[in-house]
Protein 1
Amino acid sequence: DVKVTQSSRYLVKRTGEKVFLECVQDMDHENMFWYRQDPGLGLRLIYFSYDVKMKEKGDIPEGYSVSREKKERFSLILESASTNQTSMYLCASSLYGQITEAFFGQGTRLTVV
Amino acid sequence: AQSVTQPDIHITVSEGASLELRCNYSYGATPYLFWYVQSPGQGLQLLLKYFSGDTLVQGIKGFEAEFKRSQSSFNLRKPSVHWSDAAEYFCAVGAGGTSYGKLTFGQGTILTVHP
């Protein structure tokens, strides 16, 4: 089974802190994604990556950056956390070059106080 | 750009009743369509997908969905709901080509099941 693992289930951070959310997948997938989930808004794409060191902005990249130094690991970075970034963050991965389903991690619920 | 609309934010059904969750999409070419389910505090699990071929697709847990191109819809159905089906359901559309597998999700439908 594909496994996508997010390093934390719950995080509480202070406003202005730099926050790292880590995601690791074990199926050698090329594509990796970070989504943000808010009630009534569904999932919105923040950033995605289709190869090591490659990244593309999604629909809501403002206030976020990403890093992909190794194929299996995709990090989401909040440069200076703000209260409006309190949300559920979901990481996903999929195979490159074909449409197939994305596999999701368990999510990280981030609270910024 | 593609988009997905799930018109029902919250649906309540009795256990044993039939279920239909609506999904409408907007996309210029042949869409790739998915239904995911999210139990409380969990990630998303794929229920079923449509890429091509038979427009009625079967998924896990007794769910099925029908692709109707003329109506731009991909509604999810289950003939008899179980209490364990209570969850949030998301419809998603993906694009081919250089989209790198990006999915666009609907707003989600929360399903409550009464005993």
Protein 2
Amino acid sequence: EADIYQTPRYLVIGTGKKITLECSQTMGHDKMYWYQQDPGMELHLIHYSYGVNSTEKGDLSSESTVSRIRTEHFPLTLESARPSHTSQYLCASSEGSAPIVRSQYFGPGTRLTVL
Amino acid sequence: QKEVEQNSGPLSVPEGAIASLNCTYSDRGSQSFFWYRQYSGKSPELIMFIYSNGDKEDGRFTAQLNKASQYVSLLIRDSQPSDSATYLCAVSSNFGNEKLTFGTGTRLTIIP
């Protein structure tokens, strides 16, 4: 079983607040990812990182930002939360290198509600 | 055309029968293929991965890959009620950037 953690698990917050969703993994994986998923819908990649000091935007435009200062830690920040940010946020990590893409392991997710 | 397509279901299968889930993809150069199971309200859980053409078996699960036809399937033998979930197909990008593209998932219901 993969060791990847997310906090908080649930967050209800008012519009305009700054929030940081935490993601940590203890597997030493270089690659980490953030996905957004609405109920019953597909996963959308919003950010990814291939290692320390490496971050890229994903396929879905997002107003969030990420940082990767340590291998094990990949926090996601929303500077000013809006109701449109209400969603489930999933963090994942993987090892390996192209061309063979290795499995991604997911954390438990953070369900964010912005009022 | 979506990059990864799955029948959204719901797919209903009697307990003990074989459930067959299919996925097609558009990127001919894709190298890695994954099946995830996602229970309602939970995060995706890796079930199988397959890199080469043919079949790969793990317990009650068999993944089948046909790169020429650009499809990958998942068979679940002796289906159990606990197999009821949404199954996500994921395919690697051809660009070597190690991103996965997920299908929308097939909702599977095992009928006792």
